[in-house]
Write a structure and sequence with these properties.
Layout (H helix, E strand, L loop, with lengths): L3 E5 L3 H12 L3 E6 L15 E2 L6 H15 L1 H5 L10 E3 L2 E3 L9 H4 L4 E3 L1 H7 L29 E4 L3 E3 L2 H14 L3 E4 L3 E6 L5 E5 L2 E5 L1 E4 L5 H8 L10 E11 L6 E4 L4 E6 L3 E6 L22 H14 L11 E8 L6 E4 L5 E5 L9 H16 L10 E3 L6 E3 L18
Parallel strand pairs: 1-2, 1-13, 2-9, 5-15, 13-20
Antiparallel strand pairs: 3-8, 4-8, 5-7, 6-7, 10-11, 11-12, 14-17, 14-18, 15-16, 16-17, 19-20, 21-22
The protein binds flavin-adenine dinucleotide (FAD).
Flavin-adenine dinucleotide binds next to helix 1, strand 2, strand 14 and strand 18.
Length: 418
């Protein structure tokens, strides 16, 4: 029997889910209100692939996904004529003062402990001084001398994907190759029952009947849940949060750096450029939004100065220009910065939401574990009382999908690191 399936959202998450469900034999229709694949929050992503997370499942998912990015053509199984997004292995340093990162050993992620001397030796352009806790840049104490020196944990297999929109387009092209259809400029406005375990999805351009539906609407996902009449049993949900990242001219550092001491992350970019983003330090206001479309798309001088001056503390040779060059985006944030990949109380209706600024890297794995979840639940498994696990094919780790449950007690994640 074929299963008609609607995926709402053609971002990197919806496209990855469409691919795996199409591979599993579903008749997939992807609906997106935008004009193209990956034009939502995916297009703004810094696309860093790293493994420091606060849960075993988070680390294991990222480690599995990294194998797929490194073998992108093999994972897609389809030669997209548009070309392929490319994973750049740079390594990543987390300047966490030399703490042992949780779960890396359990998952099998290679890592090295660097003391401050090793940081200075391996990254000569980077000052390992301890300046934290993070402060506003207009606080006179911001420019105080370092109070010590920092080491960190280095994962040599981390890196970034050079074109997140293209990565989503690659997944969509592979999904189309397996029969999925992408209908763009189609806004989903609600659903009605259309028979036993059958739904009529209302859209701006007519109805689509389906057996299974997945909400992968990114920062719009909570609002869409409201339109669909689901969410009453959720113990946690997500909210849109405006973000800015800025670009500076610098060939340093050549590795990705997460810097909780100053409250920023640094990511190299081809052509001697550096991307700087924020780690939500307590001293910075968070820009929660009622609706993602309320986000001002213009980068601000205030956030630019905060990010650039913090980066310049870490990189003493960095030149800070007077004008910002950056972009804005919107995260879809849960209270524990961990996504919700789950069924809902409506039979056949699923969510892949709350990606909290840290799930671009996991998208190919999210496609696989959502296909596993849909197959089991549609086959009669009660995931709520007997949570599923999923064995990652490439790395062999077993992921506990209760980590992503809508019914969980919030975990310990408190910023974009998850
Ligand atoms: C600035 C920034 C930096 C980031 N950096 C990283 C990083 O370094 N590493 C990492 O792993 N992650 C990162 N992320 C997070 C990552 O990019 C996101 O988790 C991921 O892209 C979310 O993909 P998505 O498909 O869920 O959402 P989106 O890409 O937003 O896609 C959702 C789609 O749903 C559509 N839609 C919404 N409502 C409807 C409706 N009612 N009807 C039809 N269509 C609808 C929208 O048009 C949109 O295309 C970052 C995010 C941002 C914003």
């Amino acid at each position: 029997m074929t299963v008609d399936t609607v995926v709402v959202g053609a971002g990197v998450i919806g496209s990855a889910i469409a691919l795996e469900l199409a591979r599993a034999g579903h008749q997939v229709v992807v609906l997106d209100k935008g004009p193209g694949v990956g034009f939502g929050s995916t297009s703004a992503s810094s696309a860093i692939v790293r493994f420091h997370y606060s849960t075993f499942t988070g680390v294991a998912a990222a480690w599995e996904a990294r194998q797929l990015w490194a073998d992108w053509a093999g994972h897609l199984g389809y030669a997209d004529p548009e070309g392929l997004a490319t994973f750049h292995r740079t390594g990543m340093l987390v300047l966490d003062g030399g703490a042992t990162p949780p779960y890396l050993d359990d998952v099998g992620v290679p890592w090295e402990l660097w003391d401050a001397d090793e940081v200075a030796r391996r990254l000569p352009g980077l000052d390992p001084g301890r300046y934290g806790p993070p402060r506003p840049v207009d606080d006179p104490a911001f420019f105080d001398e370092a109070t010590g020196r920092l080491g960190g944990s280095f994962t040599p297999d981390a890196g970034y994907v050079d074109d997140p929109r293209l990565a989503a387009a690659n997944l969509a092209a592979a999904a189309r190759h397996h029969g999925a259809r992408f209908l763009l400029r189609r806004e989903v406005t609600g659903i009605d029952g259309a028979g036993p375990r059958r739904w009529r999805v209302r859209t701006s351009e007519g109805d689509v009947d389906t057996d299974v539906m997945v909400n992968a609407a990114g920062p719009w996902s909570s609002a869409l849940n409201g339109l669909l009449g689901i969410g009453a049993d959720f113990r946690l949900t997500s909210r849109p949060l405006r973000q800015e990242v800025h670009q500076l001219a610098s060939a340093d550092p050549a590795v990705v750096v997460a810097d909780p001491d100053l409250g920023v992350y640094l990511r190299p970019q081809a052509g001697g450029q550096l991307i700087v983003g924020g780690l939500e330090p307590e001293c910075d206001p968070l820009e929660w939004l009622e609706r993602p479309e309320d986000a001002d798309p213009r980068p601000t001088l205030r956030v630019f100065e905060a990010q650039a001056l913090r980066a310049a503390r870490r990189l003493p040779d960095l030149a800070v220009p007077s004008q910002p060059r950056g972009l804005t985006g919107v995260y879809d944030v849960t209270p524990d910065w961990t996504p919700i990949y789950d069924r809902t109380a409506l039979p056949g209706v699923y969510v892949a939401m709350g990606t909290s600024g840290n799930q671009f890297k996991n998208a190919p794995v999210v496609g696989q574990l959502m296909a596993h979840l849909v197959a089991a639940v549609e086959g009669g498994h009660d995931h709520d009382t007997d949570p599923l696990t999923w064995r990652a094919p490439r790395t062999g780790n077993v992921l506990d999908l209760a980590t992503y449950s809508r019914l969980r007690d919030p975990g310990s994640g408190s910023n974009v690191l998850g």
